[in-house]
Amino acid sequence: MSSDSTVLRRVCTVAALTTAGVLAAAGAASAHVTVHPDSYAKGATDGVLTFRVPNEEAKAGTTKVQVYLPTDHPVLGVLVTPQNGWTAKVTTTKLKTPVKTDDGTITEAVSEVTWTGGKISTGQYQDFDVAFGQLPDNVDQLAFKTLQTYSDGNVVRWIEEAAAGDAEPENPAPVLKLTAKGSDTAPAASPAATATAAATVKSASSDSTARGIGIAGLVVGILGLAAAAFAIVRTRSPRS
Length: 240
Prior knowledge:
Helices cover 30% and strands 35% of the residues. The protein contains two helices and twelve strands; from the N terminus they run αββββββββββββα. The strands form three sheets. A five-stranded antiparallel sheet has the order 6-7-4-10-11, with no helix packed on it. A four-stranded antiparallel sheet has the order 1-3-8-5, covered by helices on one side. The model is unreliable at 11-29 and 188-216 (pLDDT under 50).
């Protein structure tokens, strides 16, 4: 085998492996369950949280989604937006430490919302909207541990929380950051809560599109490198 052929084979191999790695990493990064927006001001009132659940299985659909709300720092006044084809079950829990509000003392709060009856097919996602009356003001972030059940019985547990400075875990829980009061945050919901949720979805979709364009550009560049190497070898090879 000539040296030119060896060079070509190595370049093509590297290009193929790199492309596969890029695509695999992109798929893993986009498959997480996430919450939108990803931040609110501490103590924010009358807002909407959208839990985006993508289907990452090629041969099964998502048939059940369970989102667990923290009760040590409870989210008050939770209401669930109806989803076509899905039935929501809301579970409340008695709080160990009651919360005092302007409207009185709260002794119970929602601890879990479970959606069943619908299906998220391969290559699709579903947004589940949850309205709230008030967020806690004594914590910096909230983790919403989530279980995603597939039609084949597989359950993915999005429950891992990364410590400060650690890399993102394999199955991270959706996390909502709570910023200082008065800082820039996502708009609070009002009677136009549905419009707010729609704007959030549009923003998230734009982010996904931008990431896709960047990944596609990288792949094209890699393939271009392989093509250039092939052209060089063809130029250097003796003609018959």
